[in-house]
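User: Sequence in, structure out. Go.
Assistant: Echoing your sequence, followed by the structure tokens.
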Amino acid sequence: MSALRFLSSAARRAPSAISVSKRGYAAAADKIKLSLVLPHQAIFTSTEVVQVNIPAATGDMGILADHVPSIEPLRPGVVEVIEATGEAPKKWFASGGFATVHPDNKLTINVVEAAPLADFSPEAIRANLAEAEKVIAGNGSEADKMEAEIEVEVYQALQHAVANK
């Protein structure tokens, strides 16, 4: 009997002996352990949550349990944490950073700055945005203008996030 016929007949006789792993959608009851950290503070430390939505550089991304492992750079935007199904999400504005999805249902988000979205004033955002735009249009140094461009990007993202609370 040829080796191929032998293997195929053995596979037909004992299908339980062959284990095929399939990747599917995460079950609704599964949780992911979230750590959201800043250089000076930990906002979440291995806290079990249902879902986390992040502003990845490639587009907004929702992370559930059993998500494929990855490392995502973050653009300025809202990190939305859903701790339990049916609960209102907690929203934090992050200036940028990295999110690392680990294979064991762990998510680590490292950001430079973050604050609860509710802490921001639309008036203050508009004023700071206008000031940064003046620096770009003014006679300042190239370094000042580059710094102001980053500020404009962050304030525009913050303005959008506050408007869509």
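User: And one key feature?
Assistant: The helical segments are 3-13, 122-137, 142-163.
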